[in-house]
């Protein structure tokens, strides 16, 4: 790489968001380069593996409407990529703190197909799960293959002329006249008219070495990065094991359970765990870390025991012995919102908060619009009232 290397838009990070932005910018004719410190859909980031929940239920209709829009974008992405990225199978929500009745009201309001079932009726339909409240069923839910989505978006982006450079870690972003010079950890440089930072859990580390207007920096919300633990538990019933045929549903639905005791989520693990079982994790059961560079990748043994106990009591359809486990990074923002805003040709995209995957292709469009000079969505802007709470 030489000092002269240049591009119109440089995207830092090839996870779900960087790849979505690259696709949307490249197909609009923008010259795009994506740099990634590791490899695309890095196993050290937040977009690796085959399983993320796709569901419509949110306590706030704003997000349910956004999911509805995002589903259309995923349909289009699947068509362009010629592959299935969301496997159907439906989604369940239950538990006192999840408030299925309220969620059903939101789905009514937005017009999303659903059913609210008494616990006894749900137990008949899904005997592998113990329900402690009414249960919300969304037949439109399913499982997103995150890693395949990243690869599909990057393939479409490179087909449209984008360039991907792996193992290139941005160390600093400095203004130089009307453009930016981004320098890697090895001293290579790329000049770009605009830069999109989609660095996931490494955002705060990179911002320290980024020239941004201080008025903008001062308003940035505080992100909390946690190293989360997730486990795969085998299905007891052999009939549930195996890869679904294309278009066919998974044998189990996804579920979110929030009670006073614990918040969990679970979904068919897919390819990551040989289609043998259900991925299950405690929501925010992980350990806070400063940023992506300080993760250990080690499972917390106390959390593992807690989840084994939970499966024993709550999910009789699974054998309470994990056969695979993984860590993953959450980048949480206040109110579990997303940050998508720009200042002086620099776009910051931090849409994780533990639930961003289902919006990826749509948020890629939002990022492209920011590059083209649009004003940030008020909900995702640095001026969002949500951030004021913790600032
Ligand atoms: C355990 C877990 C479960 C989740 N479950 C769900 C779910 O069920 N449903 C849902 O919708 N969402 C879910 N999510 C959220 C979703 O996966 C994230 O919103 C999404 O992956 C965020 O993508 P990203 O591109 O912002 O970050 P990442 O995927 O982390 O991508 C950032 C990339 O930037 C790279 N990078 C960082 N710094 C630099 C640098 N300086 N130079 C170059 N490259 C750099 C990193 O290596 C990384 O590859 C979950 C997330 C986790 C971790």
TrEMBL record:
<keyword id="KW-0274">FAD</keyword>
<keyword id="KW-0560">Oxidoreductase</keyword>
<dbReference type="InterPro" id="IPR006076">
    <property type="entry name" value="FAD-dep_OxRdtase"/>
</dbReference>
<feature type="domain" description="FAD dependent oxidoreductase">
    <location>
        <begin position="9"/>
        <end position="370"/>
    </location>
</feature>
<dbReference type="InterPro" id="IPR045170">
    <property type="entry name" value="MTOX"/>
</dbReference>
<dbReference type="InterPro" id="IPR036188">
    <property type="entry name" value="FAD/NAD-bd_sf"/>
</dbReference>
<protein>
    <submittedName>
        <fullName>FAD-dependent oxidoreductase</fullName>
    </submittedName>
</protein>
<dbReference type="Pfam" id="PF01266">
    <property type="entry name" value="DAO"/>
</dbReference>
<keyword id="KW-0285">Flavoprotein</keyword>
């Amino acid at each position: 790489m030489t000092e002269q290397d240049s591009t119109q838009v440089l995207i830092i990070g090839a996870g779900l968001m960087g790849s979505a932005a690259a696709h949307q910018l490249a197909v609009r004719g923008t010259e795009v380069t994506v740099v990634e410190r590791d490899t695309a859909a890095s196993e050290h980031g937040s977009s690796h593996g085959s399983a993320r929940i796709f569901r419509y239920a949110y306590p706030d209709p704003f997000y349910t409407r956004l999911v509805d829009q995002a589903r259309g974008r995923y349909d289009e992405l699947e068509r362009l990529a010629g592959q299935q990225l969301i496997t159907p199978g439906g989604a369940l929500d239950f538990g006192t703190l999840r408030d299925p009745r309220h969620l059903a009201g939101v789905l009514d309001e937005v017009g999303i197909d659903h059913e609210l079932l008494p616990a006894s009726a749900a137990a008949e339909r899904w005997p592998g799960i113990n329900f402690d409240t009414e249960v919300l069923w969304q037949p439109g839910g399913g499982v997103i293959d995150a890693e395949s989505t990243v690869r599909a978006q990057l393939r479409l982006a490179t087909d449209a002329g984008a360039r991907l450079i792996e193992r290139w870690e941005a160390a600093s972003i400095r203004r130089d006249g009307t453009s930016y010079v981004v320098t890697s950890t090895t001293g290579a440089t790329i000049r770009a008219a605009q830069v999109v930072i989609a660095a996931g859990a490494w955002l705060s580390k990179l911002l320290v070495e980024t020239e941004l207007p201080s008025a903008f920096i001062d308003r940035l919300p505080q992100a909390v990065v946690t190293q989360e633990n997730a486990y795969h538990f085998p299905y007891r019933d052999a009939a549930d094991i195996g890869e679904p045929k294309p278009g066919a549903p998974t044998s189990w639905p996804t579920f979110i359970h929030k009670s006073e005791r614990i918040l969990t989520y679970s979904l068919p693990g897919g390819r990551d765990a040989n289609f043998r079982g259900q991925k299950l994790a405690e929501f925010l059961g992980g350990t806070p870390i400063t940023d992506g560079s300080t993760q250990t990748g080690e499972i917390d043994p106390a959390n593992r025991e807690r989840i084994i106990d939970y499966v024993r009591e709550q999910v009789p359809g699974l054998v309470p012995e994990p056969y695979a486990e993984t860590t993953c990074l959450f980048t949480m923002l206040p109110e579990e919102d997303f940050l998508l805003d720009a200042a002086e040709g620099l776009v910051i995209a931090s849409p994780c908060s533990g639930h961003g995957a289902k919006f990826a292709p749509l948020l890629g469009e939002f990022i492209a619009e920011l590059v083209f000079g649009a004003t940030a969505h008020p909900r995702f802007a640095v001026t969002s009232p949500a951030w004021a709470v913790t600032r």
